[in-house]
Design goal:
Belongs to the mitochondrial carrier (TC 2.A.29) family. The chain has 314 residues and is mainly α. The chain has 11 helices and no strands.
């Protein structure tokens, strides 16, 4: 119980719990989004038409389990992902908070603090979880007949942990950290998302004359959903590149520009970098709303529990 009085523990528990809840709910859309990303006009481009038709086709040909491929590594990755992310984000934000007149003037802007905190947290989570995202991507696409011709020939992975072991044994760090370059570039996503989210919370709280910690779940849903839509729309191309690198196992930085050229050529121009963006918005907007709202509400409950424990001990 004493651990709950530690803010870092609260951030970690709240973040990991919120991420797991959201990932389970939107997993079918994540499967479809990943397959759309790695398809091109030349290979599998017309295999997935509308969202509902595509989900129905996956369920019909692969069964219900097909809609939840990659959920295990997603959950396993999200636990450290959001735990590390929210913990580092809140820690950096608190570290850069000015203290009185002698406070650090260089971090006096809340927007700058939020951006730097988001970037630092993003780097930490990418380095910790990249191998699990590689496994997740491969599990989600390996049973797609439409994409089979565009993927390397591999014996199908039987599960998340065996896949992780095989990638480590067969490809080493090169395979485990394939797609690292676009993942690091994707930190721009959270650098946009978190400041927008924080600013929207401030705006909503100011209009209603209350503190951000007193915002209702509905207000938190609105702020998190809008922030996610803005960030996702601006930074989506890095996700397409990353998914291709995960599947191909190109290594952390190898072949990046050649791959970009091939996606452009085979996918019919720049629109290839936005394949699946609609499905992604349908998936990420509610997922972000669930994650951030759950995080805020779980954090409040943990703070209340911690405060009650401290009071009872005093």
């Amino acid at each position: 119980m004493y651990a709950l009085t530690d803010p870092q523990v609260s951030h970690a528990l709240a973040g990991s719990g919120a991420g797991a809840i959201a990932a389970t709910i939107v997993c079918p859309l994540d499967v479809l989004k990943t397959r759309l990303q790695v398809s091109t006009l030349r290979v599998g481009g017309d295999a997935y038409v509308s969202t509902l038709q595509s989900l129905s086709a996956i369920a019909r040909t692969e069964g219900f389990v097909g809609l939840y491929r990659g959920l295990t590594p997603t959950i396993v990755a999200l636990l450290p992902n959001w735990a590390v992310y929210f913990t580092v984000y809140e820690g950096l934000k608190e570290f850069m908070e000015p203290v009185g007149a002698a406070g650090s003037q260089s971090w006096s802007s809340p927007h700058l603090r939020h951006m730097v905190s988001a970037a630092g947290a993003g780097v930490a989570t990418v380095l910790v979880t990249n191998p699990l995202w590689v496994v997740k991507t491969r599990l989600q696409v390996q049973h797609s007949e439409a994409l089979r011709a565009s993927m390397p020939t591999r014996v199908p992975y039987s599960g998340a942990f065996s896949a992780l072991g095989r990638v480590a044994a067969e490809e080493g760090a090169r395979g485990l950290y394939s797609g690292l370059a676009p993942s690091l570039a994707g930190i721009s996503h959270v650098v946009i998302q978190f400041p927008v989210y924080e600013q929207l919370k401030l705006e909503l709280a100011s209009r209603r004359g209350k503190a951000t910690g007193d915002l209702t779940p509905t207000e938190l849903v609105v702020a998190s959903a809008v922030a996610k839509m803005v960030a996702s729309s601006v930074t989506y191309p890095h996700e397409v590149i990353r998914s291709h690198m995960h599947v191909q196992g190109l290594g952390p930085f190898e072949g990046l520009f050649g791959l970009i050229g091939r996606i452009y050529k085979d996918g019919g121009g720049w629109r290839a970098f936005y394949r699946g963006v609609g499905t992604n918005l349908v998936r990420t907007t509610p997922a972000a709303a669930i994650t951030f709202t759950s995080y805020e509400l779980i954090s409040r409950q943990l703070r209340d529990i911690g405060a009650f424990y401290r009071d009872s001990q005093g």
